User: Fold this.
Amino acid sequence: MRISDTAMATFMRIFAFLLISMLYAEGMAGSKIAGITRQEADSLARETVLYDGIPVTFNTLSRDLLKKVYGKETYRGLTAEQVVASIRLYPLEWKDVPLIRVKDKDMREKIGAKGDQVSLSSLFNSDGSYSVTALYDGAGLKERRAIEELDEKAGILLAVISGELIVKDDAVKLPEWRVDLELFYDRIHFLQLIFMVLFAGALSGGIYFLWGKFGGRDCSSWLIVIILFSLSLAFGMALIKFILEWTLARRIPLSNMGETLSFTMLVGTLLTMLILMINRRRKRSTAPGTAGEAYRGDIYGLYLIAMFFWGCVALVAWMLGENPVVTPLMPALQSPWLSIHVTLVMISYALLAFTFVMALLGLVSKRAGKNLRRECIWVLHPGVWFLVAGIVTGSIWAKDAWGAYWSWDPKETWALVTLIAYSLPLIMKLRGRWLYLYLLFAFLTVLMTYFGVNYFLGGKHSYV
Assistant:
């Protein structure tokens, strides 16, 4: 059915009216909140403030604080600096503003929230008592996590109002280069750029791959250019992001799920490029017109799938980055074992994830499936041994932090299950499609260990 020009014009006018109305309403809503002007807020962005004794720019603290409490970097057209400075200057006007985002639906029903945002004043009873405290009674593990998240957000706002969170000391001032570095990092959305590059590379490479495959053309040269360019660009941005975060945070950025996923993607893109270069060298030694040469053509699909996979990892990390850890690291994380243990485990997960990608290609392409077993085992061996090293170093860290090498915490237990699951194919020597099917299902243990435990079981490792 063809839509007439008149109907289309009418639709566009209605759409434009609704869009303008929404923008106007949002701007009006923001203008009704007591606060400072954009110009005044921008002048505060470069100011040095102390957070838990650590000097940072007001821009960094405001941005992370608002993302933690509200989930975004702006609120009703107001910048993060405007919001935080306004809360500090006009606390009475802001106590009734629905600024705290409550993600858990059951929690919203318990506190009587009409939407997914509540005000600070709504968390206090008429007699002035804090109503969130009573929610802990009889709460299950999942409910307790939601309560703790709400409690933390309310605590951050109270700390801003009281002045405990933002401390100005004229004797402490960051050097200009560091201020510029913080502002640069805060304004560049690295993960968003990374997943866009990887998705674009996977899509354009996939189209070119299919065009060559069904058109009978040799597209390998341009495919390599597309794949290597996309992976190199993504890896370069991920490496810059990692170095900047390490420099600015004064610690290795591996303390929460968003940071560890970013590191996994960093390792994964590097691993994909290394395997590509190894296979390129092998292709040169393959005789023309042989089955091995045809397989080498099919294996480019591996890198396209890998790019899409690492793009998904970057996308999830970007989404999780909307809820950063603003509060200081808990005592258990303030240890040199953090960098050792988490690095080993995340390298292992990157390697095991790559076996998942290889298994996908092995099932889709019969030709690749006959030749990929060696590559799968080659990647699987270091993946298992890195996981062993991660579990051992984690046990040593646990002894130092919690007084016991092993406590059967859900994360520990599922890490052991993952280790056993991936050790079996090395012992059983599975072949053909059975190996690929097994690796697909084995990856579920990685997902459960990394994501599922946090959302369904909790425990001491729920922060990462």
